[in-house]
Amino acid sequence: MTAATIPPAHLQDPDGTQGPQPAPRRSRGVRALRRHWWGFLLLVAAALVFVIPLYLLVTTAFKTNSEIYVWPPKLLPTELTWDNLRTAWQLAPFDAFIANSVVVTVVGSIGKVLLAVFTAYAFAFLPFPGKKILFLVMLGALMVPGHVTLLVNYITIGNMGLINTYAGLILPGVGSAFGTFLLRQHFMSLPKEVFEAAEVDGAGHLRKLVSMVLPMSVPAVATVALVAVIDEWNSFVWPLIITNSVNMRTLPVGLMYLKANDGMTSWGVLMSGTLIVVLPMLLVFLLAQRYIVTGLTGAAAGSGR
Amino acid sequence: MTTVDAAPPAPSARRRSALRRRQRRGAALFALFAFPNLALIAVFAYWPVLANLYLSLTSWDFIAPEPIFVGLANYTRLLTSAMFLDVMATTLTWVVVVVGVSLVLGVALAALFSMKVPGTTVVTGIVFTPHVVSGAAIAAVWLFIFDPNYGLARVAFDLVGMSSPAWTTDAEWALPALLVVSIWKGVGFVSIVYLAGMQGLPSEVLEAARIDGANRWRTFTRVVLPLLSPTTFFLVITQTIGAFQAFDVIAIMTGGGPAGATTTLSWLIYDQAFARSNVGYSAAAGTVMFVILMVITVLQFRFVEKKVHY
């Protein structure tokens, strides 16, 4: 009760004359902590549930077998080794896996973003008979569950002669309904006056797109791009189906190969391979958390397509 | 003189034809900009639905020159086999448990986050992390955790003096193991969506509840939860659609086994087509999934229009 009636520290000191900034902030944090200590404990517990498996992944990847295969488990490794990583490389062509994943992710994401940008621009600014209906038809694709399309897409790619190729890996996922939708909504919200001035100047559409619309849409495009990168990198079932030689596998599918070859008998090796799959997306997430969270919570409706 | 006479009507006619020309050029540009993407969507999202329906009425093994039309034979085989009933039971268990537990834990986490205890921002980032990480990688880590001899899950069994089950190779424990992993991967995302929903609630209403003397728990169950029902509804639908299509966790951890204990509809569709070359049978199972998910999606639109508020 008393805590609620005392105004927060920063309101008691509007001029900031009573001392340096950090002191009141810390005292506010301490007070919140004292009031919600059990909440803080729960928060730590929740964090541990998610951090421990990650910690296990990182440490096991560099532990020696004698420290992995002991009970009770050793939380802190006493010696670190690169042997697991080296063995993983010997058992499975990780060079190829990494190269394939990078190619598919980079080309696939760039393609997806380009297609989404141009399509969104067309729907936002260009005239076309029946444009609204066409837009609804495009959005309808969001309702098609991806898993149901696998079989026919495999046959289609087969008929195109693209099985076990980069084109076959990339093509079915590069079309973008959700990204287009997101960008189109954003483009429509841009202030019209700016564009009208440019049209008097006779600016062409390509120039309008590149020098006006895109610079005003950097966060929206970044969101679409980041969601595309995460989707492509983590994609599993399609690469599994459409590639049939080890050297064309992407990293997540390569993990399955590694596991089949050795993983079950050596956790250190499987964890070092897993770390290679996980690390890039962890870094991307660390650097661009804000865009990714808004993008993915929005993309939930469109299951990433 | 003639030019002066003709001058007044000329500009409007010229303007009209110029407008029409610009319209036509605009339409051509629209086609250039939008059609590649629309064509891809047509070929890789719409066509599969139709072609899958056709394939479900045929018998084919990818190799024979043409699929053979067999009518509804795949469907009768599917719906009369005990195996398919088992698969549907497993799928239903999967969906209900994963969605149910994720939502309950997710809303609890969101309530915890909304208390704004120091450190909350960091922890929201941490719980969201599994959502951006490969499901195959997460499955690999949990495979180790579920190792009966050296996995961390053994700790829980040691505490009560039991020996750990063999989880992924034990027909009774395999499905629970996969459910745990699936929930672990998805719950952070659910909590962040709920948190966003909570932050969007009108503060006057919460204030009013407090003034009326409602304690925290009552405010939460009687005011916050009902106000969050649109968020809950959105999450139930999207999580259900996702749970029906869960795949990589199964592929890495059990491959649908042992003895079919973790074969869900999504694994069956894959397994029948790509491991057994039963194209028609797989397509029929695909149609079943398509119909179920369509019904759920249509329900979503129905309810969203009415703006659920219990």
From TrEMBL, chain A:
Keyword Protein biosynthesis appears in the UniProt entry: no
Database matches in PROSITE patterns: ABC_TM1
InterPro entries: MetI-like, MetI-like_sf
Domain ABC transmembrane type-1: 98-288
Disordered: annotated span: 1-26
A biological process term (GO) from this entry: transmembrane transport
GO cellular component terms given for this protein: plasma membrane
Main location, first listed in the record: membrane
Topology class, membrane: Multi-pass membrane protein
Subcellular location: Cell membrane
Record keywords, A-Z: Cell membrane, Membrane, Transmembrane, Transmembrane helix, Transport
Transmembrane segments: 37-58, 97-126, 133-157, 163-183, 209-230, 269-288
Family: Belongs to the binding-protein-dependent transport system permease family.
PANTHER family: ABC TRANSPORTER PERMEASE PROTEIN MG189-RELATED-RELATED, SN-GLYCEROL-3-PHOSPHATE TRANSPORT INTEGRAL MEMBRANE PROTEIN ABC TRANSPORTER UGPE-RELATED
Protein name: ABC transporter permease subunit
Lineage: Bacteria, Bacillati, Actinomycetota, Actinomycetes, Propionibacteriales
TrEMBL record, chain B:
Transmembrane segments: 26-47, 92-113, 125-145, 173-196, 223-244, 250-270, 282-303
CC terms in the record's Gene Ontology section: plasma membrane
Subcellular location: Cell membrane
GO biological process: transmembrane transport
UniProtKB keywords: Cell membrane, Membrane, Transmembrane, Transmembrane helix, Transport
Chief subcellular location: membrane
Limits of the ABC transmembrane type-1 domain: 88-300
Alphabetical list of InterPro entries matching this protein: ABC_transporter_permease, MetI-like, MetI-like_sf
Recorded topology in the membrane: Multi-pass membrane protein
Taxonomy, superkingdom: Bacteria
Family per record: Belongs to the binding-protein-dependent transport system permease family.
Alphabetized PANTHER family for the sequence: ABC TRANSPORTER PERMEASE PROTEIN (PTHR30193), INNER MEMBRANE ABC TRANSPORTER PERMEASE PROTEIN YCJO (PTHR30193:SF37)
Protein name: ABC transporter permease subunit
Source species taxonomy: Bacteria, Bacillati, Actinomycetota, Actinomycetes, Propionibacteriales
